[in-house]
Amino acid sequence: MAQARLRGVVALDGPSGTGKSTVSRRLAAELGAAYLDTGAMYRAVTLAVLRAGVDPADAVEVARVARAARLTMGTDPLAPGVRLDELGVEQEVRGPEVTGAVSAVSAVPEVRELLVAAQRELISAALQEPGGVVVEGRDIGTVVVPDAGLKVYLTASADARALRRTKQDSSEGREGDLRATHADVQRRDALDSGRKVAPLRRADDALELDTTELDVAGVLEQLHKLVESHALLGEGR
After folding, report:
1. Does residue 225 have a known ligand-binding role?
2. Does the keyword ATP-binding apply (predicted)?
């Protein structure tokens, strides 16, 4: 019997620490779909800005760096990867310096315009292949793919999100400080929700899924049910 595969686009939005990256990759892998981490794209541009010695608050210079950056995204959920100027930067884009500056860089209108266009191209290319695509970020359902077949907005308490991020940092060899991470979660929430261009918000037709009390398996179970209920499964080739 052929394996059921995703058809179309699943858009997963939500703030930092809700488990978007983990469950998006797992969902894509389990449904034979492509995967796109749009947050990694903004982080890669932020890394380019920092490497260039540019102030993240200088919108003109940030836009200049963004235009010049050569960014390559992998869409295989088992090995997605992100390359900046031909070099893999998967670990660097998750570092504290990038985390502290990414909201400011992401708020620059030209950066968002450039990356949204690139994201739509990647999504379009993925849809030409067997299987659909799972896309995660903060404006997927509202801006990038407003006609996605399924839109889910992941939430969780600030305490739960801070704890998850601290554990993730520690497991990946980065220093984890729960109090500092909690403060950073709240700071990023305020910046991402308050920016003028594509602010973080739930799309009107998105389904909200609170992950505070759910583990990865629990979230995936709910997502699989939603995919099935939205008739987004078809036979793979």
Report:
1. no
2. yes
Q: Is the pLDDT of residue 236 over 60?
A: no
37 beta partners: 136
Burial class (CB in 10 A: 0-12, 13-18, 19+), 110: middle
- The answer to whether 19 is a known ligand-binding residue is yes
The answer to whether the beta carbons of residues 115 and 170 sit under 8 Å apart is no
Regarding predicted confidence, which is higher, 99 or 175?
A: 99
Set out the domains of the chain in order of their start, with CATH numbers: 4-235 (3.40.50.300)
Is 20 part of any known ligand binding site? yes
Torsion of CA 12, 29, 40, 180, to 10 degrees: 70
Distance in Å from the first CA to the final CA of the chain: 11
pLDDT of residue 1: 40
Q: Is 22 annotated as a binding residue?
A: yes
Residue 124 among known ligand-binding residues? no
Of 114, 119, 101, residue with least CA distance to 191: 101
Q: Average pLDDT in the 160-179 region? A: 76
pTM of the complete model = 0.89
Contacts for 119 with CB less than 8 Å, ≥ 6 apart: 36, 38, 41, 135, 137, 144
Q: Is 24 annotated as a binding residue?
A: no
Q: What is the mean pLDDT of the chain?
A: 91
